[in-house]
Amino acid sequence: MPVTLNLYLDDSGTRHPTHKVGKKAAHGYDWFALGGILVRSDAEENARDLHAEFCAKWEITAPLHSSEIRSQNENFDLLRGWEKDKLRAFYEELYILMREAPVVGIACTVDRPGYCGRYLDQYKKNPWMLCKTAFTVVVERAAKCAIAQGMKLRVHPERCNKAEDANLEGYYKALKAEGMPFAKENSDKYGPLTPEQLNQTLYEFKTKQKTSPMAQLADLYLWPICMGGYHASNRPYQRLTDDGKLIDCHIKEDERPVLGSKYSCFENVERKA
C-alpha cells in the first residue's frame, strides 16, 4: 500500500452562522473550526503506540477529549480529586504525547461574528454553513502539503451524525469534481489547486470514531490552534509553536496565507499578544 499523508479532523464551535453558540463557548470566543493533524501513514503506528502508552500509564479507558479534560468533567471528572502534583504531571505528560507524536497541527478557524458581518446581508441572511468554508480550506491546504511531499491525501473527519457527515462527504466530492467553491476574484491570491490537482491528490474520505487514537490527537490539537487566533500567548498554542508542531512552523512566513492554518473573517478580532 502506498504511503499517504493523512488528515484527521475534529470540529469545534457552532457551524451554523446565526445559531446561538451554546455552553461550549465558555472560553469567551465565538468560532467554528475544522482541523487537527497531518500524519504520514507510515508514522501512524508510532503515534498509536505513544497514545496507548499514555493511556495505560494513567489507566484511562475513555477517549482523550480536550474539552472534558480541560473542564475536568464527564469521563474526566476524576481529575478533580487528584492532588496538584499528580494533576500537573498528567497535564504535562499529555502535552508530551502531543509533542512526541509524529504529527503536525493544521486547521481552519472561522470567526462567526466576522463571518456574519461580512456575508449575512450579502447572501440575504442565508450564507453557507461554516463547515463548508472550514472543510474546503483545510483540506485544500492539506492537499498542497501532500503534493509537496509527492503523496496522496486521505481525509478522516471524526464521525458526527448522518447529516453532517454527509455534508462533509459532499464537500469532498465537490472538491474532486469542481475544485474550490469560492469566487475566483477573491480566491486567486491564495493559489488554489485546480480540480484536476485535487482529483489526483484526494485519495479517500472516511470518517473515524472517537475511539480512534488519531481522532483523539486531532481533538487535542484543534483547541490550541483555534485559541491561537485570538490569543498568541495562549500556553498550549505557544508551546506547540515553540516545539515546531504546527504547520506554520514548517513553511516560510510569506507562505502562511496560502499554506498555513487559516483564520477566516478575523479582520475585527483584536488578537491578544
From TrEMBL:
<dbReference type="Pfam" id="PF12686">
    <property type="entry name" value="DUF3800"/>
</dbReference>
<dbReference type="InterPro" id="IPR024524">
    <property type="entry name" value="DUF3800"/>
</dbReference>
<protein>
    <recommendedName>
        <fullName>DUF3800 domain-containing protein</fullName>
    </recommendedName>
</protein>
